[in-house]
């Protein structure tokens, strides 16, 4: 991989938050639990203006609490994309499988230490358990787990209920079996056979049987078959972990789609009478084409006749309103603000030779959807280069979100074999463009 310029100096979380004043998260004791940022690595940013005319380089070199994004100096051991990530106990940043990722990679944000955990074994279709990309992880509390363990979050299982096998682009085939990562042991086990083989779905854990009951793992859409020629799914398949059966309580999606993001909004989010809602956004309805601006929703609990409806459909010429897929997503303010990192759009352009060519537009900006106003807005500034095939994860206690790996532009900091990024970009939720 290529190496970029280094900014020397040891920067720790107390320094990051000390000058941020009242905007620091009061619930997190940084003096007792510092987050080690270490030296920062500056990606090879394109030479172009950024938000408010300030270059990405000057943002990275500025005081940390006054900037929107910076980069962990220790890159991923395995450059990966089409993977997932999660944060455990507000301390461990965990990146999971993905294209060219054969391990689960855990970084201790306090010490900077990184560990790789092997994933041995095969599913009944003879696919290795570690060969899975285009995944969408869902965290739940293990069934029957009543013991209190302050070292781990209660939701210590991460379920992966869709994915593709194979690293070769357009040579992937959809998986027929789920995988489950135990975040306490860092071991991956075989999950149930899927109702339908699928990859590039989105997923949520939903209390289908009522509040306080064990969540069902629900997969939204995806592609059955080959990544570039398979059948887009309209189904919402939910796995009842107690009864160990699949069912479809949410009916069919309004459109068959893949590469989407699914968001769960809690009840009373904007008004006391608001029900809990599922939102589906950032999807496409054709292979490498037709990214859609619509945001579809369904209210919970579902009725005997489930009904999806159009929740928002804002369009316009501004970059932040351009529909996209394969984007990272995280939420703040109990789900009201849905932040969208990167993503890709495909457009057809007339070429000088008279032919039309499909071009990809990789987004470098962060945008936010206000679930109460039902509007998009630019937020979080510009990360410096466009990238997609990624996922983001956030910690409200740390005031940070992370987006690792993904596919960056050609010639940027990436693995020369896989063309995946090694970088972990940190989004400062206390930064000027996020506030």
TrEMBL record:
<feature type="signal peptide">
    <location>
        <begin position="1"/>
        <end position="18"/>
    </location>
</feature>
<dbReference type="InterPro" id="IPR015915">
    <property type="entry name" value="Kelch-typ_b-propeller"/>
</dbReference>
<protein>
    <submittedName>
        <fullName>Uncharacterized protein</fullName>
    </submittedName>
</protein>
<dbReference type="InterPro" id="IPR011043">
    <property type="entry name" value="Gal_Oxase/kelch_b-propeller"/>
</dbReference>
<keyword id="KW-0732">Signal</keyword>
């Amino acid at each position: 991989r290529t190496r970029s310029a280094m900014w020397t100096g040891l920067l720790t979380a107390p320094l990051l938050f000390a000058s941020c004043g009242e905007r620091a998260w009061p619930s997190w004791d940084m003096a007792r639990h510092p987050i080690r940022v270490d030296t920062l690595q500056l990606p090879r940013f394109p030479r172009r203006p950024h938000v408010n005319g300030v270059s990405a380089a000057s943002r990275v070199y500025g005081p940390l609490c006054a900037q929107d994004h910076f980069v962990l100096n220790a890159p991923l051991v395995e450059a990966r994309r089409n993977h997932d990530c999660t944060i455990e106990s507000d301390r461990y940043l965990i990146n999971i499988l993905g294209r060219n990722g054969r391990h689960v990679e855990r970084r201790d944000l306090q010490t900077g230490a990184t560990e790789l955990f092997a994933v041995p074994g095969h599913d009944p279709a003879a696919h290795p358990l570690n060969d899975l990309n285009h995944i969408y992880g869902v965290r739940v509390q293990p069934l029957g787990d009543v013991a209190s363990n302050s070292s781990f979050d209660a939701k210590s299982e991460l379920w992966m209920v869709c994915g593709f096998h194979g690293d070769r682009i357009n040579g992937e085939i959809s998986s027929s079996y789920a995988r489950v990562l135990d975040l306490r042991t860092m071991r991956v086990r075989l999950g149930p056979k899927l109702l339908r083989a699928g990859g590039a779905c989105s997923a949520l854990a939903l209390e289908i049987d009522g509040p306080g009951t064990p969540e069902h793992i629900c997969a939204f859409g995806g592609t059955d078959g080959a990544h570039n020629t398979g059948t887009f799914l309209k189904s919402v398949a939910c796995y009842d972990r107690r009864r160990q059966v699949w069912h479809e309580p949410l009916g069919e999606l309004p459109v068959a789609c893949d590469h989407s993001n699914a968001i769960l909004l809690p009840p009373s989010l904007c008004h006391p009478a608001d029900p809990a809602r599922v939102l589906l956004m950032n999807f496409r309805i054709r292979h490498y084409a037709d990214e859609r601006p619509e945001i579809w929703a369904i209210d919970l609990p579902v009725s005997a006749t489930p009904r999806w409806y159009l929740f928002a459909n804002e369009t316009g010429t501004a970059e932040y309103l351009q529909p996209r897929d394969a984007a990272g997503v995280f939420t703040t303010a109990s789900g009201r603000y849905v932040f969208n990192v990167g993503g890709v759009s495909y457009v057809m352009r007339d070429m000088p030779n008279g032919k039309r060519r499909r071009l990809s537009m990789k987004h470098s900006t962060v945008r936010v959807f206000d679930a109460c106003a039902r509007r998009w807005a630019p937020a979080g500034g510009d990360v410096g280069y466009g990238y997609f095939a990624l996922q983001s994860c956030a910690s409200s206690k740390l005031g940070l979100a992370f987006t690792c790996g993904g596919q960056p532009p050609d010639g940027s900091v990436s693995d020369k074999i896989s063309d995946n990024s090694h970088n972990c970009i940190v989004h400062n939720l206390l930064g000027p463009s996020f506030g």
